[in-house]
Design brief:
There is one protein chain. The protein is of the alpha/beta class. Helix content is 49%, strand content 13%. Helix 3 runs antiparallel to helix 4. The longest helix has 19 residues. The radius of gyration is 20 Å and the shape is globular. It starts with 8 loop residues before the first helix and ends with a helix. The relative contact order is 0.13.
Length: 268
């Protein structure tokens, strides 16, 4: 919104009572904007006059502050995760690409635990860090399994992510079964991009989140251990193009179960 208004960060905060550093960290997803009054000031500065648009943004902001289920996990969240988790909880739909691991919202607890424990000594993380991150991921997973308005999720997984051995054969077979189970839900679609295909593959994982019409889509990606979030139109467009290109090349959703069965047979 700031860029649409043609303002620099310094111009946006001038006279509003908070620093350009604070706004910069909010825009990059490192911090939340804790005061509704600050958001109202920014909406005025950005020229957002439509009453419905303002009300939708203010309600979204108030809700995210008042019903944040992730507060207990904030101390162990990576940079930018707190803001993203709040946005994710309010999203209507998500399109995601994961080339390296099973996508987080599809993971079993066994897969999560094995993944975090593998890196525990190298990353010098604590047992509390591991357990908190598992609980956080399981809490986020409820977005696609809840009965009331579950998140619409479409995921493309690179075959290499499914072949990467995490925790051993039993953990992997359980994970394949879980992906198949979740993909049977009406709100979850999983496609696999085979390794043998010569086609476009994005280098890093990303997710495009869509909200109600009054809230602009966002893009999330992981870079150097931090979560980045942006609503810049050009970035949303580029990542949507990337997703559509890979979706067109990936196996159809009906082929997912058979592919997973074959992977499970290969590791027996």
């Amino acid at each position: 919104m700031r860029e649409k208004a043609g303002l620099t960060i310094q111009q946006a905060v001038a006279g509003l009572g908070f620093s350009d550093t604070k706004l910069g960290r909010v825009e990059t997803g490192h911090n939340n904007l804790p005061r509704v009054e600050d958001l109202e000031k920014l909406l005025d500065r950005y020229g957002v006059d439509d009453i419905d648009d303002r009300d939708a943004l203010l309600v979204l902001h108030r809700d995210s502050l008042s019903r944040d289920p992730y507060i207990p996990y904030r101390d162990t969240m990576p940079s930018g995760m707190s803001l993203y988790a709040g946005l994710e909880a309010d999203a209507r739909a998500m399109r995601a690409w994961q080339p390296s691991y099973v996508f987080g919202l599809l993971q079993t607890e066994g897969y999560m635990r094995s993944m975090f424990l593998t890196g525990k000594s190298v990353e010098e993380t604590t047992t509390a860090f591991v357990e908190n991150n598992i609980r956080l991921r399981l809490e986020r997973k409820r977005l696609i399994t809840r009965e009331d308005s579950p998140l619409s999720l479409r995921v493309i997984l690179d075959e290499s992510a499914l072949r990467r051995m995490i925790g051993g054969p039993e953990v992997m077979k359980e994970q394949y079964e879980e992906i198949e189970r979740l993909a049977q839900q009406d709100n979850v679609t999983v496609q696999i991009l085979p390794q043998k295909l010569v086609c476009y593959r994005a280098d890093i994982n990303f997710a495009v989140l869509d909200f109600d019409s009054s809230v602009a889509p966002i893009v999330q990606s992981d870079i150097s251990g931090a979560i980045t979030v942006t609503d810049k139109e050009i970035d949303v467009w580029k990542h949507s193009q990337r997703f559509d290109a890979m979706r067109a090349e990936a196996l159809g959703p009906s082929a997912t179960a058979g592919f997973l069965h074959q992977l499970a047979r290969e590791i027996e």
